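Lecture 7 notes: from sequence to structure.
We start with the chain below.
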Amino acid sequence: MLSPAKNRERVKVCRQTHARWGASRHGHRSAGLRHGAFAHEFVSTTLASEERRRFSVVEGEWVEVNPASGQLNAKTIELLDDWGAFLDVNLYGGALVHFLGGANSGCKPVERFSGSRPIGTQNLNMLDQDSAFAFTTKQGSASVMREHLERFLHHTRLKFIQWVNLNRHRVEFATLRPR
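Predicted structure tokens for the same chain:
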């Protein structure tokens, strides 16, 4: 259980992330930000926009375990169609947190265990009470990252981590479960 001070700190960090993706004055913001100042201010690659938008989707290990998983998948592809790949991973992660309900609903502390003994908490981007999502940009073989996420999952009570990896021109979706 987090102390009130720690919880306020967590909410503050989550709200700061959410504020970057805050709603427009009309109550929503579409992923279509490429025509505004946003795209020019935050482009973090030298690749042309056409090259950033050339990608394939690999979903062989993806299972839509809940409605939020389907939203994660669809919104990720929508963002990539709009912005392209090869941008800073934090841009995608922050946008997905916003589009999936915002920091207050998605960024939650998850208890970690060593066996049955609690050893701490870690804030994760949650899809629901049983599943979190991870967004990475590991190139080449992402097996080390996969092993890390699976080991982490084993030390929680989560049932799934929905993993999205931007591997150059391949967008890889995978559902990880405890071993």
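Points to note: The chain has one domain: 4-176. The CA atoms of residues 67 and 127 lie 9 Å apart.
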